[in-house]
Amino acid sequence: MLLNLIPEPSVERLLSLTRLLDHLDVQFITSSEIESRTGWSSNTIRKDISYIEGSFASPVGYDRQKLATAIKSTLGLDKVQRFCVVGLGRLGSAYLHYSVFREEGYELVAGFDSSVNRIEILHSPVPLYPAYKMGEVISRFQITLALLCVPPEEAQKTAERLVTAGIKGIINFAPVVLQVPEGVHVRNVNVVDELRAISATIQCS
Question: In Å, what is the CA distance from 58 to each residue of 2, 28, 41, 64, 128?
């Protein structure tokens, strides 16, 4: 089953399911037990899992470890992905020291900033480069993903430079809507939007 045939909502749930499975200490789990832990219906769970190729079902439920492995393989999470951080202010520089990335299969290989002075004074476990070297470094290390932590007024032009350099996925922390060509994927992360969403959920519940 090709990944591009799986609906985006199913991909989101499968990612959450993987995190759940990784933290359980059982050998088998049923769709009803997943429902009780997630709130998704058993039918939805079974439909999502039907997109996953592999042998993980049994008369007593899904083999937890085999199912988690199969989901990761189908979604391409079983391969190490290289990424960079662009914009080394407070947010971007904090991610330079976030050790969980490697544990989850992501290798942070470079940080970029337009301020050469900032690059020189920051202490970082990964190499730091001036922004004008993005094209060269991204190509050299075959980086495909980027965390975009620049100010709003710099976000679009920086995203365009990342796309030109070969970046295929951008996590955008700037509160702007990026315009990118087809084939490049953007995820917008805005804490205020998340607060609004959960507040609305509480009000409507």
Answer: 24, 8, 20, 11, 49
Q: What are phi and psi of 108, to 5 degrees?
A: -80, 115
DSSP, collapsed to helix, strand or coil, labels residue 78 as coil
Q: Which residue has the tokens 């609305």?
A: 200
Q: Cα–Cα–Cα angle for 177, 166, 114, nearest 5°? A: 65
Cβ neighbourhood burial of 161 (10 Å; 0-12, 13-18, 19+): middle
Whole-prediction pTM:
0.84
Tens-digit pLDDT profile for residues 156-180? 999 999 999 999 999 999 999 999 9
Contact yes or no for 86/112 (Cβ under 8 A): yes
The span from the CA of 62 to the CA of 26, in Å, is 10
28 contacts: CB under 8 Å, gap ≥ 6? 58, 60, 61, 62, 63, 64
Residue with tokens 């079983």: 78
Name 172's bridge partners: 148, 188
The three-class DSSP label of residue 169 is strand
- In 3-state terms, what secondary structure has residue 22? helix
Task: Decide: 59 and 119 in contact? Cβ < 8 Å.
Answer: no
